[in-house]
Design a protein that fits this description.
The complex is a heterodimer of chains A (223) and B (1069).
Chain A (H helix, E strand, L loop, with lengths): L1 H5 L2 H8 L4 H17 L6 H10 L4 H15 L10 E2 L1 H6 L1 H4 L4 H8 L9 E2 H10 L6 H12 L6 E2 L1 H12 L9 H15 L7 E2 H9 L4 H4 L5
Antiparallel strand pairs in A: 1-2, 3-4
Helix pairs in contact in A: 5-9, 8-10, 10-13
Chain B lengths: L1 H19 L5 H8 L5 H12 L5 H17 L7 H19 L4 H27 L3 H11 L1 H35 L13 H4 L5 H5 L3 H4 L21 H30 L10 H7 L9 H23 L7 H39 L5 H29 L3 H45 L6 H10 L4 H7 L3 H6 L7 H15 L1 H38 L15 E3 L1 H18 L6 H23 E3 L6 H29 L12 H43 L3 H32 L6 H23 L8 H27 L3 H6 L1 H5 L5 H14 L2 H20 L3 H15 L1 H8 L2 H21 L1 H11 L1 H4 L1 H10 L3 H12 L5 H18 L3 H7 L6 H56 L4 H24 L1
Parallel strand pairs in B: 1-2
Classes of the chains: A mainly alpha (223), B mainly alpha (1069).
């Protein structure tokens, strides 16, 4: 649903540029500039814009650009529409060992077909959220979306079960037994479910997370 | 649903902002801001709203809002495309409307933009310059934030040490190198002759001796010149300030960091509230990229979850509690034992090294480094022992880790503390042995005689001698006439090395740091690398799985490594004052450690099973560091405050005496006040006495006068005679040893006390003639001469030593002095109890006579000596008998006026010198007493020796009555004959007084033997005071009189030495 919102382009266009045709033209041309103008490398304006929009430094962005072109293994010309498949992203060494790698791709992907493929801007978004200086709010927001396996805006029992299974790995000997799982989920809900609706919503989640001493330092990915 | 959540959160934040914002602007606000959230419903209206803003204020508000959007946009959790659009739109609005505003605002905006860009640039650059950023990130991405936190901490420590290095380097080391006296120019910067040959041996260098010991690396090398260079850089001050600044800076930076950290984790105070949520939601460390690390992390997560579940389930169940408790008790006992053992071993080793140094000439490499090696070994082995022991306890892993950390911290602290305590102990005993050596040889003081000769010819050499002249051993073994430079330097070996305990402590600390580094490197290579290689390549052909069973790969134990870092830093803090280069060394060490550790972690370590919580631990590390800093500061500050700076080396060889004297003078003024009160109370009483005795004394006065005139002349000549000798004695007492000489003084005191005690025992000898008296007078005059010499030696040398050591010559007349001194022995014999009384009277009279006689020259020469003692005496008075003094005051007060007439200039000088002392009537009187009669001088010396509470009574008697002993032997009648001064009524008062004090004097005399030893410390103290004050008088004296060549000669050389110290003292006192 979120991605639905995000990609209602025509609607957004109306929202964002209500001033009239003049402005629209202006921004259009800017947009075109991004898409086509600097095909092989980032222009200065883009760099500065990305710096303003993310928590990354110039070096980080250039580094990300390099890595992304490597993943893409071809010229990167459209920062929004040229995409790398989910599998390739998950092969990255930084994500390879991460049990949530697929979820991460899905959350950050803006692809209309929801295949988890990542464009360069998505990539920057991801790195920004996982960067050192990102705020707790951003981090917890994305963490919530990562854990929200069915994208319904709350963490219900199924989500929690999947989450725990992801953490404990796929093999049967490491997975928790049914009883353990139930006990665990019950305890989690007892602790965090403030409004007692049987699910954890974003604000509850953020409340819990913000009290954790090391969430911010562990919710990081460094290229 | 996500959308809903999304808008929910942003709305919440918005609401807050709305409240904050002016509600008038609500319309604009919503137009510009909310549109992206709830776009669908409000589009059209918004378009209208936005059509135009006529009101400039409104426009401005709008622009502000847009700017806020721009600056906060990165904190929105939107996709990039959306953010881009919003950003561009906001920028457009800003651009479009900003033109309508005033020009200044436009400029402001432009400036702000520029500033922002500049800030970003600076940020980019600073990121570029953060050392090891990439390396740490690489480690982070492999092993997670826990391991990285160690390296971040290491980097932070590195930063601190850089600053400390800059501080010490810029303010202490560089000035010393550039402007300080060059190497080899002064004894404290010269390698002793005996060591030059071996100064470059690897062995010596390794133990930080030789050239290293006499380099800027250590405290001892720094000169005590108050100012160095053309700019007059105050090195000692800078040294002290930097020493303190090291601690201050560390404290400030630590506390700031801690405050920042705690602000960051402010919310995370409640600990166990969300155990399960955290275990699930925050379990994964997204940084982990290494599959192995991920595996162990997974295992750790599962473990922790299972444990939590188990804990929940088994909360009520208790398994064989008794067993566990007994096991834990056992474990704790074991830990305590090993702690005590390690402390004992360290103490033992230091003790042993001390023993070895004393007994053996050549130390092997092992013996030299034993201490540091043992300490390092303990720090390496004991943590593993603790870990083994901890397995007995069967605690929760986290609790285990905490216990482990606490124990290791205690161990490290115990090590450092036992080491420093043992070292200080050694320092203590070093100075003790110094003292005993000196006492043993103190009566070799006769060597002074040959020295005199050489000295008179080689005046410039005096400076060199300063450090060496005290050499007792040299003198024993070598012919005195061949007392040449080499001999001097030979002595340096003995005196200097032993004395510079600061350098010694610095050496030990640096040594410890070096050995610790070697051990760290060794353990990394051996325990991590070799083991890793072994496990990796031999596991295929081994009978069990090496990788998962016994040796495994080395674990990277974050907490223990962090503790080791803290321990290492603790050593630096402890030793930085004594070895200014220690922070610089630590910088190098940390750089090396950074590379080696990161390499080892990446190649041959697996992360610790229980990953130490990174961010919470941050403040935990810092708290431990703070704790360490505090505890490391204590012994250093204690050592600085408690122990005397070495007198021969380092920037503070003078300072402490000054401090002590200040403290003492404060105490003195306090006492003085009290005494003054008493004096005033007794004033009336005295007057009554005066009246009574006036008649009795009247007859005696006339006789004395004639006698005395002849005396004066002879005395003067004798004074001059003795002057060359004084020079000789000066050389004798140049010696820097203060401690040693003190002990000397004790023994001498005893000896002298014996002499003195004879006085009451001996029968009266009425037959003593005037001639005899003459002779005695000469003798006494010599004493003053000797004293004078001592005084000058005093100025020059380091302290009390000179004055006191002078005595042996009088007591054991081995040499030319003998003749002159002999009378001194006689003199007591003549005195009888009754005679003392009689003499008392005489004394008083005698003084008067002198006063009346306007012999300025005589006065002057004599006055010099009094100056020397004057300062001291008031103090002695204070400590001692107030009663006696009161009596004197009466005399003094009355006499003061005539006295002033005679020697106005001197008086003035003295007034200045005495400062606070002389304000009160009593000190005045004392000084007056001294000035006119040189006899007192000699006597006063004696009296000083007898210092002791009870003896003080005697003291005053002596001062006055000693000369009289000679005259008065026959009795009061003789005395009358001799002294003819027109005696005013006060004389008789004096007599009365004597009668009273006499008994006391007798008692105290007998006691003197035992007391003198006890009082020696007092004397030392007084001498310190005196030292400083003497310098003043000395200076003035130099200015005022330069008649006597022989004296001035020596003084010139003295002046050089004294000048700076004098400066210091003058300005401060």
């Amino acid at each position: 649903m979120l991605s639905g919102l995000l990609h209602k382009d025509s609607e957004l266009q109306r929202v964002l540029f209500p001033e009239g045709p003049e402005l629209k033209v202006c921004s259009r041309s800017g947009h075109i500039g991004i898409m086509g103008g600097s095909a092989s490398h980032l222009s200065k304006e883009q760099l500065s814009e990305y710096q303003e929009l993310t928590f990354l430094t110039k070096q980080d962005i250039l580094h990300a650009y390099r890595i992304f072109t490597e993943l893409l293994s071809k010229e990167l010309d459209d920062f929004q529409n040229t995409r790398v498949s989910k599998d390739r992203i998950c092969e990255m060494p930084e994500l390879k060992a991460n049990p949530f790698r697929e979820r991460i791709c899905l959350v950050f992907s803006t692809a209309a077909e929801k295949d988890g493929s990542i464009s360069f801007e998505d990539f920057l978004d991801m790195l920004s959220a996982f960067s050192d200086s990102a705020t707790l709010e951003i981090k917890s927001h994305y963490a919530f979306r990562i854990f929200d396996f069915d994208d319904d805006g709350t963490l219900d029992k199924e989500d929690l079960k999947k989450l725990v299974n992801c953490l404990t790995g796929g093999t049967s000997d490491t997975q928790l037994s049914e009883g353990e799982m139930n006990q665990l989920i019950q305890n989690i809900l007892e602790e965090s479910d403030i409004d007692k609706d049987g699910t954890v919503n974003l604000s509850e989640f953020q409340h819990v997370i913000s009290r954790s001493p090391d969430f911010v330092s562990s919710f990081k990915i460094v290229l | 649903m996500t959308e809903a959540a999304n808008s929910k959160s942003s709305k919440a934040s918005q609401r807050i902002k709305n409240i904050r914002k002016n509600s008038i602007n609500r319309r604009i606000y919503s137009a510009a801001y909310e549109e992206h959230e709830n776009s669908h419903s409000e589009d059209d209206e918004q378009e209208d709203d936005k059509a135009d803003y006529k009101d400039p204020e409104e426009i401005f508000q709008n622009i502000q809002i847009q700017k806020e959007i721009i600056s906060n946009i990165r904190c929105r959790s939107w996709a990039m495309g959306q953010k881009l659009k919003v950003l561009r739109q906001a920028k457009e609005i800003v651009l479009k409307y900003e033109g309508r505003l005033t020009r200044t605002r436009g400029y402001q905006a432009a400036g702000a933009e520029m500033w922002k860009k500049f800030g970003r640039l600076v940020y980019n650059i600073t990121v570029l310059f953060i050392p090891w950023e990439m390396r740490i990130k690489k480690i982070e991405s492999h092993f997670g934030s826990g391991v990285a936190s160690y390296f971040i901490f290491l980097r932070w420590m590195f930063g601190i040490n850089i600053v400390l290095t800059i501080m010490t380097g810029a303010f202490v080391i560089l000035p010393e190198l550039l402007a300080g006296a060059p190497f080899g120019s002064v004894p404290s910067k010269t390698i002793p002759a005996g060591y030059v040959a071996s100064a470059q041996d690897l062995d010596t260098i390794w133990s930080l001796g030789g050239y290293l010991q006499y380099s800027v690396m250590f405290y001892g090398y720094y000169g005590n010149d108050r100012k160095i260079g053309r700019a007059g850089y105050r090195l000692p001050l800078a040294y002290f300030m930097v020493g303190m600044a090291v601690f201050a800076y560390s404290f400030i930076i630590l506390l700031r960091k801690m405050a920042k950290n705690s602000r960051l984790s402010m919310a995370s105070t409640s600990d166990e509230n969300y155990t399960f949520c955290w275990k699930v939601f925050c379990a994964w460390d997204y940084l982990i990229g290494n599959p192995e690390a991920a595996e162990s992390k997974t295992a750790a997560v599962i473990n922790s979850i299972r444990e939590a579940i188990l804990e929940e389930q088994v909360k009520k169940k208790d398994r064989s509690l008794a067993m566990i408790i007994s096991l834990r008790i056992l474990a704790n006992i074991l830990v305590l034992l090993s702690l005590a053992g390690s402390i004992y071993i360290i103490y033992f080793v230091v003790d042993r090294s001390q023993e070895l140094e004393r007994t053996k000439v050549e130390l092997t490499l092992w013996e030299k480094n034993e201490v540091s090696v043992v300490v390092s070994l303990i720090t390496m082995i004991a943590p593993s022992v603790f870990e083994l022991v901890a397995q007995l306890e069967m605690l929760h892993p986290r609790t285990t880790l905490r216990f482990q950390l606490a124990r290791v911290l205690v161990l490290y602290l115990g090590n450092l503390y036992s080491l420093i305590i043992a070292l200080l102990d050694k320092v203590n005993s070093m100075s003790m042995t110094d003292n005993s050596n000196d006492t043993g040889t103190s009566f070799l003081a006769t060597r002074a005689l040959p020295e005199e000769e050489s000295l008179s010819t080689i005046v410039p050499e005096i400076r060199l001698r300063r450090n060496s002249s005290f050499s007792s051993e040299d003198n024993k073994t070598k012919p005195l006439t061949r007392f040449n430079k080499t001999a001097l330097f030979d002595y340096n070996i003995l005196s200097q090395q032993d004395q510079c305990w600061e350098t010694y402590v610095g050496q030990e600390m640096l040594k410890l740091s070096i050995i610790d580094m070697l051990f760290t490197v060794g353990s990394i290579l051996l325990i991590d690398f070799i083991r890793g290689l072994f496990v990796r390549y031999l596991s295929d052909c081994w009978c069990w799985d090496l990788e998962s069973k016994f040796p495994e790969y080395g674990e990277f134990k974050i907490a223990e490594n962090v503790l080791h870092l803290i321990y290492n830093q603790g050593m630096i803090w402890m030793g930085a004052f004594f070895s200014p280069c220690l922070p610089a060394f630590n910088v190098l060490k940390l750089i090396g450690l950074m590379y080696l550790r990161s390499w080892a972690v990446l190649t041959c370590n697996v992360p610790h099973q229980q990953v130490f919580r990174a961010s919470r631990s941050n403040n935990f590390y810092l708290a431990m560091t703070l704790f360490m800093l505090f505890l490391c500061m204590l012994p250093t500050v204690f050592a600085i405050a408690r122990y005397r700076p070495s007198p021969t080396c380092g920037p503070f060889s003078m300072l402490i005496y000054y401090l002590q004297s200040i403290a003492r003078s404060l105490k003195f003024t306090n006492n003085q006040l009290r005494i003054q009160l008493q004096i005033e109370r007794t004033e009336d009483k005295k007057k009554v006495f005066q009246m009574a005795v006036a008649r009795f004394q009247h007859q005696e006065d006339d006789d004395k006068k004639t006698e005395h005139e002849s005396d004066v002349a002879s005395q003067e000549s004798s004074l001059q005679e003795s002057s060359p000798r004084r020079n000789g004695s000066v050389t004798n007492f140049d010696s820097p040893l203060s401690a040693g000489s003190r002990i000397q003084s004790i023994s001498q005191q005893v000896a002298h006390a014996v002499d003195v005690t004879r006085v009451p025992n001996l029968p009266e000898n009425p037959s003593t003639t005037a001639a005899q008296k003459h002779r005695r007078e000469h003798a006494f005059q010599r004493n003053p001469g000797g004293l004078q010499g001592a005084t000058s030696g005093h100025y020059r040398g380091k302290l009390s030593s000179s004055r006191v050591t002078k005595l042996p010559e009088d007591i054991h007349p081995d040499a030319p002095f003998r003749k002159c001194v002999r009378p001194l022995h006689y003199s007591p014999s003549e005195g009888t109890p009754q005679m003392i009384l009689g003499r008392r009277v005489h004394t008083a009279r005698y003084i008067l006579v002198n006063e009346r006689e306007p012999r300025k020259r005589l006065m002057r020469s004599a006055a010099r000596i009094p100056k020397h003692y004057k300062v001291d005496e008031p103090r002695g008075v204070v400590e001692m008998l107030p009663r006696n003094m009161k009596r004197y005051t009466v005399h003094g007060a009355q006499r003061t006026n005539p006295q002033l007439h005679f020697s106005g200039e001197e008086e003035d000088e003295e007034e200045l010198e005495q400062g606070t002392f002389s304000r009160s009537p009593r000190p005045h009187s004392l000084s007056d007493l001294h000035q006119p009669t040189r006899f007192y001088i000699g006597d006063s010396k004696d009296s000083r020796i007898l210092i002791g509470k009870d003896l003080t009574q005697i003291r005053y008697e002596y001062e006055d009555s000693e000369p009289l002993r000679d005259h008065a032997g026959p009795g009061s009648s003789q005395a009358q004959r001799l002294g003819k001064g027109p005696v005013p009524t006060n004389q008789s008062v004096g007599a009365h007084v004597k009668w009273k004090t006499k008994q006391k004097a007798d008692q105290s005399l007998t006691e003197s033997d035992s007391i003198s030893v006890a009082s020696s410390s007092d004397q030392q103290n007084s001498s310190t005071d005196q030292y400083i004050q003497v310098i003043h008088s000395k200076d003035k004296y130099l200015k005022s009189s330069s008649e006597k060549l022989s004296r001035t000669k020596s003084r010139v050389s003295i002046e050089l030495n004294v000048a700076e110290a004098n400066d210091l003292i003058c300005s401060n006192v």
